[in-house]
Design brief:
Layout lengths: L1 E9 L4 E9 L2 E4 L10 H4 L6 E7 H17 L3 E7 L8 H14 L7 E5 L1 H13 L6 E5 L2 H7 L4 E6 L2 E8 L4 E4 L9 H18 L1 H16 L10 H22 L19 H6 L7 H18 L5 H14 L10 H14 L6 E4 L5 E4 L2 E2 H15 L25 H17 L9 E2 L29 E2 L2 E2 L1
Parallel strand pairs: 3-10, 4-5, 4-6, 6-7, 7-10
Antiparallel strand pairs: 1-2, 8-9, 11-12, 13-14, 15-16
Helix pairs in contact: 3-4, 4-5, 5-6, 6-7, 6-8, 6-10, 7-8, 10-11, 10-13
Length: 475
């Protein structure tokens, strides 16, 4: 939720506006959010007497009956939009399908949409709410480790476009987020592992105590769904609760002063410098946690090469990734991908690399002044180190599968058409590589493109980058 106060002053040549937006939203830890005895969520919809819920199909298959009975118990009419969103279906057609459901439902301007699912669902549905009438409320109930720990903290919402993650999006805060860790009881182990990476991210660069707990209980946390499965030791449950609360709190402390990312040196961007390329380049996408783990492991090697972390700390970080079954390398991670990823992130980060690395564990520094040759040297060293680890540093269950709904099941023709349009627009708008030389303060010297071939967002008859598709159907 946000409120805006502003002043308008007359100047010599016109007017000057000062506006200040107050953003406020709540987090509630509530095990059993859909237990009829817990009225907190239902109370958010009493005024309306109805609710439109957007949820992942996998979540609905497990919890759909419980959700329906919950709202029936509280006398609230429920309509459900079931979606399948994988990383490669985090696209405009999926976004538009949610928008169409909002229109069909007749959503009122201040009426909140309920979004139930993992980080991909909350990203796309949140973006639909941000775009619908420019500002429609929503309430989040994340159901995965990534959704609970990472996506729930940020107010960023987005879809992918072409081979670029989160290229189209907005900053749009939810009214409320309910954090129910009992969802982890039914979450596949592969998804627990996937989210574990986000906790390594925040703890490695900002919270040593949490890193120590992850290191101590790593395997048990993954095997017991963070202490939520039957028979999980109470000690592990207590450690998990401490990790989760402190992890979320630390993320909020780092994010809330910079909700709109005006400051681009971001501690929580550890693992997010080159990972977008890892996530989208393979034909079968890597899970997000594995993609950022490759980035984090490589970044740790880079930090160690610069003597920012000791050899012992370096090995401790790599060993934790390995014990968790997270990826530290990938066959397609080569100098070309490193080059492309660097070129792409420089644009996102306003011409500087701003690579977050541990210095030491529990704190962070940002690397900017670095040669391409140094990046490549660190990659070669990292590849050599990976030979000492199981599977040469590749992770367990690293690729998306049926537990990551959507990327193979959405309308392929529409998705492919949009991706072709995006690639055309990207190549024509100067998305090039870095071809040698030094990144002075992170600025690349080899960006190529032919901007003149783009006019009013069209290329080869692709108008506004939508390739003739309107509301998910060919116009």
């Amino acid at each position: 939720m946000s409120d805006l106060t502003a002043t308008v002053n007359v100047t010599k040549n016109g007017f000057h506006v000062d506006g200040y937006e107050k953003i406020s939203y709540d987090f509630t830890f509530l095990d059993g959010v859909f237990n009829p005895e817990n009225p907190q969520l239902a109370e958010c919809y009493k005024r309306w007497g109805r609710v439109l819920a957007v949820t992942d199909l996998n979540v609905y298959n497990v919890y759909g009956e419980q959700i329906e009975k919950y709202f029936e118990h509280h006398g609230i009419d429920l309509k459900v939009h079931k979606t399948k969103i994988g990383e490669k279906a985090k696209t405009i057609p999926t976004f538009l399908s949610i928008v169409d459901s909002m229109t069909e439902f007749g959503i009122y301007r201040k009426e909140p949409v309920l979004v139930v699912g993992g980080g991909l669902v909350t990203d796309v549905a949140g973006f639909a709410c941000a775009a619908y009438r420019r500002n429609t409320n929503f309430i989040r109930v994340p159901t995965t480790v990534i959704g609970l720990i990472d996506a729930s903290v940020s107010i960023k919402v987005a879809v992918n476009y072409g081979n670029y993650k989160n290229r189209l999006g907005a900053y749009h805060a939810p009214m409320h987020t309910f954090l129910d860790f009992t969802f982890l009881r039914t979450l596949p182990t592969a998804q627990i592992r996937n989210g574990f990476a986000e906790l390594i991210k925040i703890s490695t660069c900002s919270h040593l105590d949490t890193f120590n707990l992850l290191d101590k209980y790593c395997e048990q946390l993954i095997e017991t769904g963070f202490g939520r499965t039957d028979g999980a030791p109470e000690e592990v449950r207590e450690a998990a609760d401490k990790i989760n609360r402190e992890g979320i709190h630390e993320m909020l402390k780092l994010e809330t002063p910079n909700l709109h990312e005006i400051g681009l040196d971001r501690v929580i961007a550890y693992g997010h410098t080159w990972s977008p390329m890892h996530e989208l380049v393979p034909e079968t996408p890597l899970r997000h946690g594995h993609a950022i783990s490759i980035d984090m492991a490589y970044s740790a090697t880079l930090a160690n090469s610069r003597k920012l972390i000791s050899d012992e700390e370096h090995r401790r970080i790599l060993n934790l990734f390995s014990r968790a079954g997270l990826s530290m390398d990938h066959p397609q991670f080569d100098e070309d991908i490193l080059d492309k990823g660097t070129a792409a992130i420089l644009k996102t980060r306003d011409g500087k690399l701003r690579a977050a690395v541990p210095n030491p564990i529990g704190s962070c520094t940002f690397i900017n002044d670095i040669d391409i040759s140094e990046l490549n040297d660190a990659l070669r060293r990292h590849k050599q180190l990976m030979k000492e680890y199981p599977r040469n540093g590749e992770g367990l269950e690293a690729y998306v599968d049926a537990s990551d709904t959507g990327y193979t099941d959405n309308n392929k023709q529409e998705v492919q058409a949009l991706e072709v349009a995006a690639e055309e627009a990207g190549s024509l708008n100067g998305n090039g590589h870095i071809h040698g030389g030094k990144l002075e303060n992170g600025v690349s010297n080899g960006t190529n493109g032919i901007k003149e071939k783009m006019a009013n967002g069209s290329a080869k008859g692709l108008t506004n980058g939508v390739n003739g598709f309107t509301n998910g159907a060919r116009a």
